[in-house]
Amino acid sequence: METSPADHYGALGLDPRCSSAQIRTAYRLLVKQHHPDIHGGSAAAIARAQELNIAHEILSDPALRRAYDDELNRAAETARAPHRGRIQRNIDKDVRLRIEDFFRGAHYEIHVTDPASADQVETYELHVPAGSAPGTRWRLPRTAPFENGFVIVRLCVLSGARFKVRGSDVRTDLRISSRRATDGGVESIHGPNNTMLRLPIPPRVKRGEVLRIVGEGLPHRRGGRGDLLVRVTYKPEVRVVRSRHS
After folding, report:
1. Which residue from 7, 11, 35 is spatially nearest to 23, judged by alpha carbons?
2. 122 and 169 co-located in one domain
3. 173 and 153 in one domain?
4. Out of 96, 105, 202, 245, which could bridge 130 as a Cys pair, Cβ 3.0 to 4.6 Å?
5. pLDDT at residue 135 above 50?
6. Residue 173: predicted pLDDT
7. Using CA atoms, how far apart are residues 123 and 110, in angstroms rounded to an integer?
């Protein structure tokens, strides 16, 4: 069975004939309505926010939107064509990279199977340049007998135990002493590209408060980087005083 393109217009509740202004307005309203922080960081809310971000990134960029519309038109033509014995031209493939690979680059071997020829495995080399951004897509020309098609690769993030990713922003936790929480100061923390960063801690910081280090997240598709969001945790200091009468 062939993979259908994601419904980015449907994600924003829009018609494919909508204007750029309608895309911006719908995105702003929906991203506020479905922000994970409002819904307790639930998995469904995070997935919905990611869906909205991807739809907005593609539809707000004229070149990406044209390419996406062309993909929708091809899918519609394919759906109307006879299916028996037909070989799928394009294959979508998500590749999950470790966070550090977005910064230093990586080589991957991609394996795909055409649904029309399940016994034949195709292998392709993917070079991910340093500084690539999540959501970036590449079109790898397929080999014979599928040379008229492409493997459309999308880069995704493989979150680890230390870092969680939302778009180009990276989240992590930092445990500090109760004294540091009271007095404030500066803490050192590992960034997502394995560099040491200095994080100013304001006096009387609240447990669970999120501090932001601007520009230390993952690369953006349009240049620059997201932010590193650090959630502060600590245990309150408990003093045990021995009673004179004990």
Report:
1. 11
2. no
3. no
4. 105
5. yes
6. 94
7. 6
